[in-house]
Amino acid sequence: MATKRYLHEWENPNVFAVNKLAGRTPAIGYDSLLEQQADKQSNKLNLNGEWHFKWLRGLSGFDKDQAVNEEASGWDTIQVPGVWELQGYGKPYYLAFDYPLALSKSKRRIPEIDPTQNEVGIYTREFTVPAHWQQKKVYVFFGAVKSAFHLYINKQLVGYSQGSMTPAEFEITKYLVPGKTE
C-alpha cells in the first residue's frame, strides 16, 4: 500500500507538532524572593501588542519560505492577542453551526482542505532579548492559536503546532542573537 504524500503538515493527519514541547503548566521563575514580592518578572518578556501582519485568502502563490524573507515594513499591523476576523480580515464564523468553507465535509476527502479558501495570516515582530538571559534557556509560549502555525525566529524554522486554541511552547535559545530578534 502506497503512503500518501502531503504538501503541508496541516494536511497530514499524523502530524500535530514539530519541535513543540510537551504540554505543561506554564511557570516562570523569579531570580529572588524580593523580585517575587515586588511581582517583577525579569525572566518574562511580554510580546503582546502591535505586530506586522499580512493576510491571504488562498494558498495560490503562497510560499512560506518567501514569506519569511519578505520585508514586512509595508504590511498592515494587528493587535496580538486577537482574532484577525474581528480586526477586519476574513469573515467570522461560528463552528457550532458549520465547518469553514476550506474544510471538506465529504468522508472520502477528509482531511482535505481547499487551498483556494484556506486563510493564511503571517505575523512578525522584532524584540530584544534581555542581556541577563545570555546564560539561560529561553522559551516562547503561545496561549492559543487557531488552528495551526509555523514558528520562525531570525528566518529559521523553529517548529510547528496544530490544534485550535491549544497552548504551544518551544525552546528558542539557539535561534536568538544579541540585539534585535524577529
For the biggest sheet, the summary is: 3 strands, antiparallel
Question: Count the helices. How many?
Answer: 2
Structural class: mainly beta
Strand content: 25-35%
Helix content: under 10%
Q: What is the ordering of alpha helices and beta strands?
A: EHEHEEEEEEEE
Evaluate the radius of gyration: 19 Å
Roughly what is the average pLDDT, rounded to an integer?
86
Number of strands: 10
Approximate shape: globular
Report the end-to-end length measured between terminal Cα atoms. Answer: 43 Å
Structure commentary:
Helix content is 6%, strand content 29%. The protein has 182 residues and is mainly β. It is globular, with a radius of gyration of 19 Å. The model has no long low-confidence stretch (mean pLDDT 86).
Write a brief caption for the model.
The chain is mainly β. Helices cover 6% and strands 29% of the residues. The longest helix is centred in the middle third of the chain and has 6 residues, at 64-69.
Write the SSE topology.
Blueprint: E1 17-18, H1 33-37, E2 49-57, H2 64-69, E3 76-80, E4 119-124, E5 127-128, E6 139-145, E7 148-153, E8 156-162, E9 166-171, E10 180-181
Antiparallel strand pairs: 1-8, 2-3, 2-4, 5-10, 6-9, 7-8
